[in-house]
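Treating backbone geometry as a discrete language has practical consequences that deserve illustration. No coordinates are needed to read the tokens, only the vocabulary itself. For completeness, the protein is quoted in full, as a sequence line and a line of structure tokens:
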Amino acid sequence: MGLVDGKVALVSGAGRGQGRSHAVRLASEGADVICVDICANPLKTLSYSLSSEADLDETIRQVRATGRRAVKAIADVRSLSEMQRAVDAGVAELGRIDIVCANAGIGTWAVVWEMTAEQWSEMIDINLTGVFNTVRAALPSMVQRGEGGSLVLTSSTAGLRAYQNTAHYTAAKHGVIGLMKVLAQECGPHGIRVNAVCPTTVRTPLVINDATFELFAPDVENPGEDDVREAFEGLNILPGVAWIEPSDVSDAVLFLCSDAARFITGVALPVDAGNTVKT
């Protein structure tokens, strides 16, 4: 028996990174998974590419390799109607939703006085409104079924503190925690627990890209991981930790979705190597 045996999970941003890791980990512990991603590159402010359909297909393959069922849904979290179609398709095939991992997100950098309106709006639309759209689409059927469930919203250490060059990201991630706290109150009477995970830097394309390296090593020509490692290690307390792996966050997500956390709700859980208490 897995920790979430017989459950159905909805995971946004499932094409790669944390989303893929969460989907596969939940499947390995017994859950069927509705895997959602945009599978396109419509954004104008990113310096890296979003997940492709091939990426999402690989997640589907890995989920099914655990012996669990997977539903592939291509949708933009900025659109409530698209997320509703993804939810409806998943419920039609798998029968229910018990777990929601509202994970999809992007990362860009700028000081406020150089940030464009487009950078601000794309960030808020995906990292905050996208979380709302994901849970808004999934919750009605969960509430109506009356059998409880678990929502895990992906925030960040930037939801608990502030970093320069991330006003838009920090605002969105603080907003996710506020949304989580209200959801915990509203969903609690229906047996649905709501929590957030707040990772430190995670080794995914959101961070591991040229724009990030150039920000953290401005005096280095064509900087790579080795050139920024020390700077990232300086953000955390635990020694030698520049970034954690998606699987480290998945451990926390699985715990929050399982009966081991049956009395935990309304919590913003740092997975941060001490980042948020470092002075």
In short: The first strand starts at residue 8 and ends at 12.
